[in-house]
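Hypothesis: this fold can be encoded by more than one sequence.
Test: take the structure tokens below, design a sequence, compare later.
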């Protein structure tokens, strides 16, 4: 006899496990292709003769593309649906990411990096748009936490495993390493067609451009900019900050703890997703704690400054998950991809430009603390928005 589950009765975990695994693996590939570049950068630079600016662009260019590719992702979702968009985006990501391992010169390397970033950018709104089609409403928050855990694990895996483990297995070839990280995503893309679940009614040719009349578009985007600019900004300037303080010898430990603590943040959110996601008070608290940690990097030096930065990373990671999880909860399923893409457009534009403006000011003044002050000023400017968020479902 067929078993019927009421709308308020959670299905058994075994039924959700395959979907959870696919969401997690997709999340991993939101970050591994981006953050495998920093550890490989010295090897790539030696072979291709990159300048300092071009070496930095291996990481910053894909982050910029996360903003540029957001709305094409929204367009694809509105025309071919979130699952097909996710598969297409993963194929584009693999072409660019693996292509970096085959390039003959600097120009093609930068083109491949941009293509890779564009694919990742299209993946980002496709995942939250896919959640209402694969998960019941009471599982949307934990679904967001699962793929965001994969994303933050991908940050650590890409940065932490590449040099000590993967490269020695591949005869220290940066080209083979890029291929080894990239090609398994093809298997994930193929597996995305396995689930037959589609709990939302199919929608064709819905609106895809940003809905600027919806205040959430700008509000969530600006708060994503708070989370992203602090995380990427401190990551970028940690070495300069410690060097100016006379503690450059602590950089390796600082970056390790700064990045791994986001994994702990995502694990905490797997536990707390249901009670925390959708609560404005929690968003406010996490934003304030991120700002306090950022302030500590200016007040302290050495290990106290590193601890402050790590606090910022932890709470910025939680804030990121809380914000990314909002669109599936607040708007109908056909609007989820559009709202997600629009907030990513705003958020990643700021995550790229705010630290960049801070770096320009620091170059002009000769004091790297001014770069952190620019990020802190932006955070304080947008913090009041968190108090005014309207998190009622439309």
């Amino acid at each position: 006899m067929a078993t019927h589950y009421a709308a308020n009765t959670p299905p058994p975990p075994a039924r959700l496990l395959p979907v959870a695994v696919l969401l997690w693996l997709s999340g991993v590939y939101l970050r591994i292709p981006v953050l495998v570049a920093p550890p490989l950068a010295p090897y790539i630079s030696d072979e291709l003769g990159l300048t300092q600016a071009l070496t930095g662009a291996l990481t910053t260019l894909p982050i910029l593309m996360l903003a540029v590719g957001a709305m094409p992702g929204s367009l694809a979702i509105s025309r071919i649906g979130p699952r097909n968009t996710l598969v297409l985006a993963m194929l584009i990501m693999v072409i660019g990411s693996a292509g970096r391992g085959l390039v003959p010169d600097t120009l093609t390397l930068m083109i491949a990096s941009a293509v890779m970033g564009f694919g990742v950018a299209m993946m980002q709104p496709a995942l939250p748009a896919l959640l209402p089609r694969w998960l019941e409403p009471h599982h949307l928050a934990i679904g967001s936490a699962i793929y965001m855990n994969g994303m933050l694990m991908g940050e650590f895996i890409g940065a932490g495993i590449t040099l000590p483990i993967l490269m020695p297995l591949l005869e220290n070839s940066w080209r083979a390493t890029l291929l080894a990280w990239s090609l398994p995503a093809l298997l994930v893309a193929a597996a995305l067609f396995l689930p037959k679940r589609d709990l939302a009614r199919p929608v064709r040719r819905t609106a895809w451009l940003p809905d600027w009349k919806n205040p959430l578009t700008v509000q969530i985007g600006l708060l994503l900019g708070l989370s992203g600019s602090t995380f990427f900004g401190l990551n970028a300037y940690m070495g300069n900050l410690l060097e100016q303080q006379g503690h450059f010898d602590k950089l390796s430990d600082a970056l390790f703890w700064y990045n791994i603590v986001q994994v702990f943040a995502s694990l905490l959110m797997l536990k707390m997703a249901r009670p925390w996601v959708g609560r404005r008070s929690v968003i406010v608290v996490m934003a304030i704690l991120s700002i306090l940690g950022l302030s500590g990097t200016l007040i302290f030096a050495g290990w106290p400054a590193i601890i402050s930065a790590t606090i910022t990373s932890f709470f910025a990671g939680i804030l990121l998950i809380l914000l990314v999880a909002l669109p599936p909860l607040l708007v109908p399923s056909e609007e989820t991809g559009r709202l997600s893409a629009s907030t990513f457009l705003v958020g990643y534009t700021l995550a790229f430009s705010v630290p960049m403006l801070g770096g320009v000011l620091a170059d002009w003044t000769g004091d790297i603390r001014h770069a952190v002050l620019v990020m802190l000023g932006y955070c304080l400017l947008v913090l009041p928005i968190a108090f005014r968020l309207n998190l009622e479902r439309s």
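Residues 1-10 have pLDDT under 50 and may be disordered. The chain is about 80% helix and 0% strand.
Hypothesis status: open.
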